[in-house]
Structure formats: structure tokens, C-alpha cells
């Protein structure tokens, strides 16, 4: 089987409009969560989110593109441009024919949907823009990435709620690992921060009105974010041959399904995915130095996740570091695993562990080293990224430091 | 129907029971209503009384709205109806 490495990374999220900006914010423990700004926000009871502010799409896209790209597609393209530029790849000939793009996304073009429902239902209009369907479809982002970069291999969108990006990246990994293609573009995006998007989440009563405080005893729910994370997964020999800089190695992954409850997480399901990723990557428990937690800041997730980690790692659970960067960028739902993979890369490559900010009170049910409030330096050989979705669909990725 | 009967009717429907099987002393657990069922019941109550119930599933014990029994739910709703009418 082929070894798989990451040779490019890109992002836009509430912490920054590039990977360097985002990592700097994570190192500094900066919070990207702020008052939401969009139409009808005053009708919401949840008014905070990790929103991308001061965003000027017209500086990135032309008029025709803007007519076709929902916000989630725009974010994806911005991240993909950064990732592919860093990788230094041009797709033509046989490489273009084999390379594809697999992205995670949950809500599709939610702002397009919201704007157009408002137009026909509230404003009573009887005509909508002709591009509503191609704008809102979940695969729009993957398709536009394939068009912009000439990716003609296997390309599709994976939708597994909060685990979408991790499932997508696992698929991309598998394709490179198994020799289907030497290069895959992967990651995910989300943009649900519009009236209808937040209103729907409000209904579940799991959102916090003030902050995302994962693992803290006084946590009171999740906070949504938006943005994208995109990576170039490349076969090691292919990357070496062209002298590409390697950010980290993708060592393995596992997926599991709780088959239990549509919203409540399961310790066993999470533990099976974590353990499975270690087995797939042939990693010994003791090698794991960092886990980027799913860490949503809900009562249910955080204690279940900590119990799963404690179960899998036993005594080593007290030695590893585990943090939730959702405290800073919010929960990007279908895009979250992609942005969070950046924290794993930072841990492996730079030896800096992103903190869990907003941490105020220890919770005996989350008694692990959650790197509270301040980033920490540590040499990490292996990092895991957890994602446990609504619907009980779990995906864990294992990354290794590349030396 | 008074507030008590209307609340009991909502909770009974959620629990798939006859209203006569739901007493003021019943707890949601007794009635087999889980966290998702609770959130759905609160939604139905808000719709029925046109009120807004302050309830966060992450901290069910916090805040003013006491869900420990049908009785406490009824009295919480009576208070909210008075405050928000």
C-alpha cells in the first residue's frame, strides 16, 4: 500500500483567511466567535457564531462566479486555492485524469436556500434566480474545485453531518493509499450561518448563547462556525520525486456507526472508531501525543468523548493532550474536521498544541489534560482527529509526524 | 381545559399514554420521555401557550424552568403564561 502525505493546506474560517493566520490565532488562543451579523438575526435567541467577518467575496471572484457560488462554495475555493498553491501542483495529462476531489459538507447552500425561500414565501415573489439549484446542491463546491483545477478523477461530496470532512478525508486517503490516484484534494466546508440555518439549530436547544466551553464544567452548548479546510493528499513517492514540502503523514483512519440514537453520542461507537484508527495505522497507544477532540461543548458529547478516550488509552489517557479548537472557531458542522486537522498538523510539524479556550471549571467527567486556555509546546509523533456526528456516524483520522 | 389538563394532554401524547395515566407526581423518566422527547414536548408547550420556555438541554437543572415532575412543569408554565401574556 502507498504511504500518504499532506503537501498542501488551505482554509478560511472565523480565525483567519489562510492557514498561517488560523494557526497564529490557535497559538494565541484567540476566539473567533462573535455577534452574528445577517438579516433577521434579531429574531433568533442564539446570536453568536464563528462567522467569517469583513469578508469581501468580490475581491476573490468575478460577477459570473458570484452568481454561481454559494458562500460554502466560495469558502471551499478560497481554501483549495491556498492548498493547491502550497502543494505546487498543476493538474494536466494523466495526473489530471486520475486526481479528484472529495469534500465533506452537511447543509449545502443554506444561504441560497434561505434567501430564495424568503423571496418566494415571505416576499411572495413567483420567480427565483435560474442558478438556485446548481448553487445549493451539496456537491457544488466539489464540482467547482474540480473545474477550477482540472481534477478529472473520482470526485464527490460526503455528507455525514459533523463527521462529513473526516469521512471525506478518509475516502481521499483510501484512494491514494490504494493507488487509485497519486493525488486527491480533500477536506470540507460549511456555511449555515443564516437565519434559517441557526433557527433550525436553535430548535434542538443544544446551542450556547454566550460561549463554546468544551470540557469545562459550566459548558452550556455548542456554537456554530463557518468556513472551509482543504488539503492535498499525495502519495509519498510522488511528493518526494518532485521535492514537495511535506506537512504530515496521514497514517490511517477508522469509521464506525453507533446504530443507536439519532442525536445522543455513544461511548462504544466513539471508542471503536478511535481504536480502529490506531489499528489501521499500526500505531501503538503510547505513541499518541495529541487528540483534536470532537469537543462540541455540549453536556453529552464531551463526557462521552472523554470516557471513550479513557477506555481506549487506559493509563496513557492521562499522558496525552486533548483539546477542542471549536472553542475558537466554533463548530463548522460538515467542514469542522477539515479546519481541525490544521491543529493536528500544527502539533506534529510545529510542536504547538492548540488550546481549549473558555475553560473555566474542571469537570470530573472530563478529567483529561484538555490544554486549557493557553497553547502548549510538546513534541508529538502521532495525532488523532475525532469526529462523532449526529446520527451516530464516527470517523477518526490518524496523522504521523513526517521526518 | 385548564393549563394543567393541556400540559398533561401534551405530555401524554408524547409518552403515547392516556391523559389519565399521567399524574402530577409523574416524572418524565416514569413516563418514558427521553431528552429528545423532552425537547419535543417543550416545543409543543410553547406552541400551545404561545410562550417561550427557557430551556437548554445541556443544563436541564439550571435556570428557572424545573422539569423534575409534571407538577413542576405545570407550575413553571403557569408562571411563564402570566409573565408573557
Automatic annotation (TrEMBL), chain A:
Gene Ontology biological process terms in this record: fatty acid biosynthetic process
Domain Ketosynthase family 3 (KS3): 1-401
Subcellular location: Cell inner membrane
GO molecular function: 3-oxoacyl-[acyl-carrier-protein] synthase activity
Keywords attached to this entry: Acyltransferase, Cell inner membrane, Cell membrane, Membrane, Nodulation, Transferase, Transmembrane, Transmembrane helix
Main localization of the protein described in the UniProt heading: membrane
The keyword rRNA-binding is annotated on this UniProt entry: no
Function: Proposed to synthesize NOD factor fatty acyl chain. Involved in the synthesis of a highly unsaturated fatty acid moiety, which forms part of a lipo-oligosaccharide that is responsible for host specificity.
Record-stated family: Belongs to the thiolase-like superfamily. Beta-ketoacyl-ACP synthases family.
PANTHER family referenced in this protein's UniProt entry, alphabetically: 3-OXOACYL-[ACYL-CARRIER-PROTEIN] SYNTHASE (PTHR11712:SF352), POLYKETIDE SYNTHASE-RELATED (PTHR11712)
Protein name from the UniProt record: Nodulation protein E
Originating species: Roseovarius litorisediminis
Automatic annotation (TrEMBL), chain B:
Span of domain Carrier: 1-81
GO molecular function, one term: acyl carrier activity
GO CC, alphabetical: cytosol; membrane
Taxonomy, superkingdom: Bacteria
Statement: the UniProt record of this protein carries the keyword Lipid metabolism: yes
Pathway in which this enzyme or protein is active: Glycolipid biosynthesis; KDO(2)-lipid A biosynthesis
GO biological process terms on file: lipid A biosynthetic process
Entry protein name: Acyl carrier protein AcpXL
Record's keyword terms, sorted: Fatty acid biosynthesis, Fatty acid metabolism, Lipid biosynthesis, Lipid metabolism, Phosphopantetheine, Phosphoprotein
Keyword Transport included in the entry's annotation: no
InterPro entries: ACP, ACP-like_sf, PP-bd_ACP, Ppantetheine_attach_site
One family name in Pfam for this protein: PP-binding
